[in-house]
Amino acid sequence: MTRTMRAVRVTRSAARPEIVSIPVPEPGPGQVRIRVAGAGLCHSDLLVIHADPSFFPLPLTLGHETTGLVDAMGQGATGLKEGDAVAVYFPWGCGHCARCAHGEENICTVPTFGPGAGCDGGMAEYLLVDDTRHLVPLGKLDPVSAAPLMCAGLTTYHAIHDAIGSLSAGASIVLIGIGGLGHLAIQIARAISPARIIAVDMQDAKLAHARELGAHHAVMGGPGADDRVRAFVGGEGAALVIDMVGNDATMALGAKVLGYGGALKIVGVGGGTLPVTFFSMPRDASVNAPYAGTLSDCHEVVRLAASGLIVPHIERIGFDGVLDAYERMQRGQIRGRTVLVPDM
Known about the structure:
By secondary structure, the protein is α/β, with parallel strands linked by helices. Helices cover 25% and strands 25% of the residues. The protein is globular and about 70 Å long.
């Protein structure tokens, strides 16, 4: 008799996800099945939900921020044992190109997508993982609390660490959007750099949260935000701006407060655009769009959490709370990160 499990699935383009019953997957050669402990809800899931026509293969189980326990291993899978607590690295590459050989599967030269985008993700009771290299041991970390490390933590670590050479004690980091990614970005910036941190958001509650987490300054967004940020970064501007919203207004703000030689990193998928010309940007400044992080970054984020330097702030929900949580996320009403716990 075929075993079944619950899963949060997008079954048709631009339609609400559904909680459905589907077969429990069986691991093939080299694959690993994990029993999901936690699956984070990410704003980029909304791209999958609202895509019309769908860019993604449907039906599709959502979820790319996943942790769990090894439940079964396919023939030839080695390096782990049943019961091990693991986190799932989500930007699966081909494993063979030059980028993958350097551990940069996030920029694999063969167009591939991992769980929650190209194949079924972790918002289910079980998840099938293609290769043991995509599983990071969690040790004594709580798997549920660790789930946001796999995207919110990984992505912001990658963006900050990439600019670490310019983040001296006198430098400034501006973090725009203090939600699921932003609350971890503050902690990561404090952990790996001596730079001054200026947090920007449109909600008083999130600015208060930013101060609690260690931001040196918290600034209300909206009209005049560039002047308010400039009051703290000074005339030299910011060495690093990470835009975790990505709409027209936040991208424009990032460009206005960026300093000479600074980096504006657009992480949010808010659909904005930024006109870039020779005269519109500071001298030697750069603009890029980091995607996730490397396998090495993934291991480093887990180590930071294991040492207590970063702590995801989460709200735990069961399957019956997922659809409401996505609606609250769209309205900007989530503090930290929401994590689906299948056992709830």
